[in-house]
Write a structure and sequence with these properties.
This protein has about 60 residues and is an alpha+beta fold. It contains one helix and three strands. The protein has a three-stranded antiparallel beta sheet with strand order 1-3-2, covered by helices on one side. The longest helix has 15 residues.
Length: about 60
């Protein structure tokens, strides 16, 4: 996955026993309060999930 300079990324590993509702709640909280969006999900052979979240970097310029 090519990483862009315009975004920052966070990778979350969800273990095998994580239920669908628990995962949805976790990702919803990240999106709502941290302004993260879902970029990619990778399923492993063991049943775990690796989730990539991204958000746009806000660059602020000085005004004085």
């Amino acid at each position: 996955m090519p990483f862009s300079a315009d975004y920052e990324y966070r990778i979350i590993n969800l273990p095998r026993g994580t239920g669908r509702s628990e995962a949805r709640q976790l990702l919803t909280e990240q999106a709502e309060y941290g302004r993260w969006e879902l970029a990619r999900v990778q399923l492993s052979f063991g049943g775990g999930r690796r989730v990539w979240l991204r958000r746009r970097i806000m660059r602020v310029e000085r005004t004085f």
